Amino acid sequence: MSLVTLSNVCSHLQNASLARLGLTSIPSTNLLHTLMLQLQRSGYITSVTIGGPHPPPPSSLSPILDPSNPEDSSSSPQQQGVHADQPAITQANISSRRLW
């Protein structure tokens, strides 16, 4: 991943915060997923959910990880923002995946 993409994501998050948007999405990559989970653990982001091009249902936006518990780093899909009602990520749909 280039630094240009990372800077674009940081700018997007800052603009969404300044516009007081409650929900925004960014491209889904391993680096950005890890970054968003770290921001969630730090308390800057409420929830991280992997979804498609359309926003996920509000019920899936509840916080998954406990930000006050740094030991909560299990590799369970439920704790990494993947919900059972979402389709599996495949080569055919990977380009449309977004982090919400």
List keywords for this structure.
100 residues, mainly alpha, three-stranded antiparallel sheet, 2 helices, 3 strands, 6% strand
Please provide a written account of the structure.
The protein has helices at 3-18, 30-42; strands at residues 26-27, 50-51, 98-99. By secondary structure, it is mainly alpha-helical. The protein starts with a helix and ends with a strand. Strands 1-3-2 form a 3-stranded antiparallel sheet, with no helix packed on it. 29% of the residues lie in helices and 6% in strands.
Topology (SSEs and partners):
Elements: H1 3-18, E1 26-27, H2 30-42, E2 50-51, E3 98-99
Antiparallel strand pairs: 1-3, 2-3
Compact description:
The protein has 100 residues and is mainly alpha-helical. The protein contains 2 helices and 3 strands, in the order αβαββ.
**Rg on CA atoms, Å:** 13 Å
Report the major sheet.
Answer: 3 strands, antiparallel
Shape: globular
Helix content: 25-40%
Overall mean pLDDT score? 76
- The helix-strand sequence is HEHEE
- For the largest sheet, list the strands in their spatial order: 1-3-2
